[in-house]
Design brief:
2 copies of one chain form a homodimer.
Chain A: H1 8-24, H2 31-38, H3 45-48, H4 52-76, H5 82-99, H6 101-109, H7 116-142, H8 150-163, H9 176-187
Helix pairs in contact in A: 1-2, 1-4, 1-6, 4-5, 4-6, 4-7, 5-6, 5-7, 5-9, 7-8
Chain A binds a DNA duplex (30 and 30 nucleotides) through α3.
Chain lengths: 201, 201
DNA sequence: GGTTTACACTAGCGCTTGCTTGGTTGACCT
DNA sequence: AGGTCAACCAAGCAAGCGCTAGTGTAAACC
């Protein structure tokens, strides 16, 4: 049995599982359904994963690690101003929700189906991601770009962003860039909003 | 079998079901667990509800109708300024999340477990509620209190508010009033934020 | 050439699920 | 006294569940 997400085969199976978990929900997705989607028989599934729980954990781990990596590189490559960093985080968050949508929907909706061990491990990953946000928001507060309580502002912002998975349509006219700009514009003082990056037409 | 939520007995059973659905999730809550929590045998449950699905629909219907009613009376009894109406809606929303927490958590997390008929009926209720929000936000936009795209602003605000069910602690120091004030303060221009109501110390 | 490894198969065990059936109880009405 | 009705119960059915056991096979390695 594979134990790490490194195996390409396992990675592909994880991706398929994420899709089914979104469609049906974790509990209603049976191992037989998973196996069929993967083109194998249900027994063969347990060669790749110890049990059904481990598939859920793999899905969430994959998505969260990607989000963390994207956010870090977005912060590393943007201007070093509070505005630019805030914008980069929002944009990175929304782009992750687009490219890794299934995994993130699963993470948001099925978190409580994780057993305690997996939840413990994965909450460290999630905390690392949220810490990035809180740091960027702290900088914006210190610069007077936004006002309010540090804790509440970060919760509100992450709530607004995470909620997008319930209504955002990737096929629609609005791009992640647009959403990010609008959100940052909404929470910053009007006079403080910088011009949009030059990539926008 | 009862068919309306009017029966007091059924209303009480619905309340208990909401609690279990939050604790365990809809799919993992068995009819035997529900029956035990209600102090009856599993077969007796089907005297009150046609099937398990109907219990879920009853829970969500109850919560949404309460939210709608509270929001309407909050709007009816507040000052007729965009600020006051915005604030009243946010506060009403958060207070509903507090008093009817279980039902709302179920509505947010288990919506997709509804069968198409129930979903159709309940989405009309939900649309009526969201229409209240969009109206109030339109007024705030027209008054120049906030800026941005009508659609996006309302989604962001509702996202921030709904997300509170994931982190808000009713036992903590922050009251719904505080959260509402902070959120409105965050999205409105600083100079436009009115003084807090006199009930705040 | 023999052994190991990765991946897949068939068959089915033991258990739980939502729901049904047929019948009982006790409060209330006429 | 006789009838009604909501509320409940004991028992169990058919279907589906996660997972295991044991086996086959083709490629990779020594």
């Amino acid at each position: 049995m594979n134990v790490v997400n490194e195996s390409p085969r396992r990675k592909e199976l994880t991706r398929l599982a994420a899709q089914l978990f979104v469609q049906e929900g974790f509990d209603r997705t049976t191992v037989r359904m998973l196996a069929q989607e993967m083109g194998i028989k249900s027994g063969s599934l347990f060669h790749h994963f110890r049990d059904k729980q481990e598939i859920l954990a793999a899905v969430i781990e994959e998505g969260t690690e990607n989000a963390l990596q994207i956010a870090r590189s977005a912060l590393a490559s943007c201007d070093n101003t509070p505005q630019a960093r805030l914008h980069a985080m929002a944009r990175a968050h929304l782009e992750t929700l687009l490219t890794d949508r299934n995994a993130h929907v699963v993470a948001l909706y099925e978190w409580r189906r994780l057993d305690p061990d997996a939840r413990d491990h994965l909450s460290h990953l999630r905390d690392a991601y949220e810490a990035l946000w809180e740091q960027v928001i702290d900088e914006a507060l210190a610069a007077g770009l936004i006002q309010g309580d540090r804790f509440l502002v970060s919760r509100f912002v992450m709530g607004a962003l995470n909620w997008t998975v319930r209504w955002y349509d990737p096929e629609g006219p609005r791009k992640p860039e647009d959403l990010a700009r609008e959100l940052i514009g909404m929470i910053t003082s009007p006079r403080a909003v910088p011009a949009a990056p030059s990539t926008i037409v």
